[in-house]
Amino acid sequence: MKCLSCIHLLVVALACGCFNPAGVAETSSATTGETSTTGTSTGSPGSSIGTPTTGLGTSTSGVTSTGSPTGTGESGSTSTTGLSSQTGTESTGSTTDASGTTDTSCGNGTLENGEVCDDGNTVNDDGCSDTCERDAVFVFVTNQVLQPMALGNAADVDKLCTNAAGDGAAVPEVAKSSKWMGWVSFDGSAAVDRLGNSTLPYRHTQPDYAMVAMSAADVVGDNLDASIHFDEHGVMVAEDGVECGDTNVWTGTNAVGMQAGETCMNWMSGDINATGMTGSIHDVDDGWTAVDACPCSVPRRIYCFEVRNE
After folding, report:
1. Backbone dihedral angles phi then psi of residue 213, each to the nearest 5 degrees
2. Angstrom distance (rounded) from CA 165 to CA 179
3. Distances (CA, A) of 202 to 36, 103, 195, 210
4. Mean pLDDT, range 139-146, rounded to an integer
5. Which of 63, 127, 242, 308 can bridge 70 by disulfide, Cβ–Cβ 3.0-4.6 Å?
6. What is the pLDDT of residues 16-55, one digit of tens each?
7. What is the pLDDT of residue 240?
8. For residues 158 and 24, which has the higher predicted lDDT (pLDDT)?
9. Whose CA is closest to 233, among 207, 203, 213?
10. In degrees, to the nearest 5, what angle opens at C-alpha 90 toward C-alphas 87 and 91?
11. Strand 303-306 vs strand 180-182: parallel, antiparallel, or unpaired?
């Protein structure tokens, strides 16, 4: 009777829900947990139940932040946009840097399109202007003294001056490679005929760049603005005050640039009794080119002019 009463009480308890065996509780708990997970997963349409979609979504966001899209939809699209923006920025920066480091201004020391010269500065009256155009030509008296027979002919004396200019420490770089002429007349070759027709002013070489004449036309028929007393190295030849002395230079040329009567027999004689016309490097009137007929036995300097034909 007691056993039948216990069974009866158990049945009643089960029917009322007042007693849950341990095995049943575990099954119910597991089912509830799975249902909870499934509920979280259904935030992404089309996702399979039981697949942790929220976890994958978090992973996709992490990949997107590095610019490597691994999924589809808005996150992948955002990643692609990020890469496109980054690529555009790098391209623009490279172009800016390239143009920013290119110096194309006058005075940078590099000859570029549109420039006649570029001497590395923007100083005027030194042969190359602040717009990189020639603004002067030059003249000097040679450091070397020469016997008349060393002059040779017109081509020889012009070459002598061109070489002296190329080696001259005071000759501006812009003029070193120019053609030069020796202010000496020969039979059939007057000095003025080889001078050229420059409209630019003639100036001393360094150190002072003083103006000597306004143009080639002003070299003859008018007084000079300054005497020609600096050599190609910038050394001033001192006045010695002696007739036919050290400051007399061979010219064989009169005040209008033509051949004078005395030329040491067309520069072929070193005889003491022969004479050649000389100029004085400290004169600015006609005497700069024709002052004294001096003995051909004494070596003398010559004038050198840069040649420019326009």
Report:
1. -155, 150
2. 9
3. 101, 32, 11, 9
4. 97
5. 63
6. 454 454 444 443 333 334 433 334 433 444 443 344 444 4
7. 86
8. 158
9. 207
10. 90
11. antiparallel
Q: Does domain 137-306 have CATH number 3.10.100.10?
A: yes
Q: How confident is the model at residue 125 (pLDDT cuts 50, 70, 90)?
A: very high
H helix runs in 66-172, sequence order: 74-100, 154-167
Backbone dihedral region of 132: left (phi > 0), alpha (psi from -120 to 50 degrees) or beta? left
Instruction: Evaluate if pTM is beyond 0.85.
Output: no
**Which one is predicted more confidently, 103 or 73?**
103
Share of the chain above pLDDT 90, in %: 63
Residue with tokens 């040679």: 142
Give the full edge-to-edge strand order of the sheet including 202-204.
180-182, 303-306, 137-141, 202-204, 211-213
Q: Contact at 8 Å (CB) between 260 and 190? A: no
For tokens 């799975």, the residue is: 34
One-letter amino acid for residue 6 of the chain: C
Neighbours of 180 (CB within 10 A): 28
- Please report, for the chain, the start and end positions of each structural domain, with discontinuous segments joined by +: 137-306
Residue of 105, 128, 104 whose CA lies nearest to 116: 128
Query: Across residues 93-121, what is the average pLDDT?
Result: 74
In angstroms, the CA 5 to CA 304 distance is: 146
Using alpha carbons, list the distances in angstroms from residue 236 to 46, 140, 209, 277: 100, 10, 13, 22
Nearest Cα to 183, choosing from 46, 297, 283, 279? 279
Whether a cis peptide bond, with omega within 30° of 0, leads into 52 is no
